[in-house]
Amino acid sequence: MLLNVVICGIGGQGNILASGLMGSALVEKGYKVAVGETYGASQRGGSVMSHLRVSDTRETGVLIPKGKADIVVAFEPVEALRMLRIYGNSDTKVIYDIRPAYPLGVLIGEDKYPDLEDIKKEIEQNSGYSLPLPATEMAVNAGNAKAANIIMMGALAALKEMPIEPEEFFGVLSQNFKGKVLEMNKEVFMVGYNAVKEGGGK
Amino acid sequence: MEWMTTKNEPGKTYLMQGNEAIVRGALEAGVHFASSYPGSPSAQVLGIMGRIADQMGFYAEWSTNETTALQACMGASFANARSICVVKQNGLLVQADTIHCGALGGIKGGLVIVTSDDPDAHSSTNEFDSRHMAVTANIPMLEPASVQEAKDMIPYAFELSEKLEQMVLIRVTTRICHGRGGVELGELPEKRPFEPIGKWDRMIGMNWLHSFLLEKLDRAKEEFEHSPFNHYIGKEDAETLIITGGTGMKYALEAIDELKAGDSTGVLSLGTLWPLPEKLIMKHLEKAKKVLIVEEVDPFLEEHIAAIAGKSGLKLKICGRSDILPKIGELNPDVVIKALGEFLGVEEKSCCGSGCPAVESVTIPDRELTFCAGCPHRATFFILKQALRRHKNPGVVFGDIGCYAMAPQRAGQFGVHFMSCMGSGISAASGLGQLTKYGFGQAVVSVCGDSTFFHTVIPGLIAAKMNDANILHIVLDNSATAMTGFQPHPGTGETAMGQTAEKISIKAICEAIGCRVETADPFDVKETMDLIYEMTQESGIKVLILEQPCATLAAKTRKKKKIWVDTDICRSDSCGCDRYCSRVWGCPANIWDFEKGCAAIDEVVCVGCGVCAKLCPAGAIKVEGGDE
Known about the structure:
heterodimer, A: alpha/beta, Pyruvate-ferredoxin Oxidoreductase, domain 3, 43% helix, B: Rossmann fold, Rossmann fold, 5-stranded mixed sheet, 36% helix
């Protein structure tokens, strides 16, 4: 078995941390895991991407070949589309936060940010399953806008391809967080997890 | 997750980042001393080491530049301490003289240099290949193929370094540093004591040691013929041989798998890259009909292996980065699959079994890098451009290396004309500034960050003063080495190990050199603009220190002001300002509300610097509360 997951977004959304936590949970379960992080100077507004590769038998390189992603988790709608086009195929499952982060070119009026409905349509057409999720909004409602990354990990874990249960993810959370932050992270993880379950994702 | 690096759990496997694995490797080698200057992709290594040094009983420091860092390691080595120096590819080049002279003199306690290269220049201005340095300096070099090897190689390199009494270079790349993989932990040893320096102990780099230098390299070669870091994978005596260095191994295996070429292809993964184990390589070359070499970035192995084959009179096809693999950029599974397919004459399958996304109905915008919301550099380059426009002939700006390396782009109003390496801005400006005495008619300005000032700007500033160049030098003092992740520097008042240090004043240094020095706040837009205009009209060398902390740092300590747009005042597109806040100022927090057709603030992104409120011609942007 080899599972290829692209986790993408923009700088500062916590996508590197999230993929590290998910990868650690899978290593704890005995899987062979490789994670490739592409971020460069991305905290300055650029795209960020992690490749998470999980296998029970082989040690792979850290990069996923084009067209080979089983799952794309995106923290931003345009990034979902950008990475689906490169790494996706017609079976790929896509979960994405619908909150746009406008690139500089859009802000200064040289580029246009596409209509969200058009993005949804193209993602739907070119994937096996897609779920737009208001993760940032859900995180704000849960009291911390920055917890959207953990919501998205909950959503990812709810897909049937992911060999991980919430309790196993909580194990890694408790290695890295304590007290209120730990409880909050567990809570928002379940928000994402349940959203996919209810959305018919598994 | 740096807590993993200190765990005393031999045999336990954790998912570690390459940089964490390097730290762990150093701990398993019983390291005494670590020194570095921050550079991506390996900046995290010394950051972690500084934080765990007290707990783990060793010393770690941020130095002012890479060559001072390495020289400090050599000093520690003299007392038989094991020392590690961590740099990026540019840093290794800064160390060139020290490495060459140091290699001639040799070392006592093990000394390992880790250099992190950045193929594709993800967080660099270049993708220079560090491996050539080992050849010119005549020192042994290793490169790991996985995160596990990145850990395992460090104790091995220390053993080798002490056996040869020579420094050892370990070359890693971004895909190791910023990759994660399972790492099985080893033992954490007891630290050995230092040794006194005896009356006749010497570390002196002189040419009469040249033959010893080469003899050490010969011994390394013998050692490498049996190194556990060189392995052959796949069918014995395969017709097609792939030789890989570093991360090339995993790409090659994936390509063989993808093309179902396992019956005819084997992989020799080399971890000891200099000197090359010639006998081992020849053993495999002799059995092969053709050879593909997979490496980052230059055709380094390819050329040296072709030389080995050629000297032995072996005739066979050797391909790689010089022909069928791209000459530039980073490898990935796709380019290696394509190249191997071509090499084997196998038709490459479509990239995926079930068909790629077919319809691209939406045009998606690029995501250009820019300064963070509230970054003082945005204000600085905005002001600088406006001030230089007041001159009859617009001024020329020399940049340097840091976050402000984005200033030649839109982020900095396209306001920088020259940029090269660390410390180059001041000296190049000084050269041009001399010409103003001979008729060159433009104002000359150079900029540098606070960390860069200490790294290599000071000698340039002294040269400019000594030769009385006509320039304005601006220090963008944001109290941080921001680009690489907020490492302490001599001006921040703390050390790598978290101790308080006496702050070294940039202003006092510039005054001691004899420059006119002014300080200003880039958020005081009008006053600073006037000051720059005035200073660029004066002859001689002037220094302006623009003080305003990095927005990312300030956001952690300062109470945020609330910035909002009064939609009754914002006149939208009828204002005539041409959306000055979002289009000209260009802060990521100054967004445009397309529904209401007026300016807006993205509250999640805004850090409350309030500069946009000063620039809005209608006065529609309001500021409330917060700290100054």
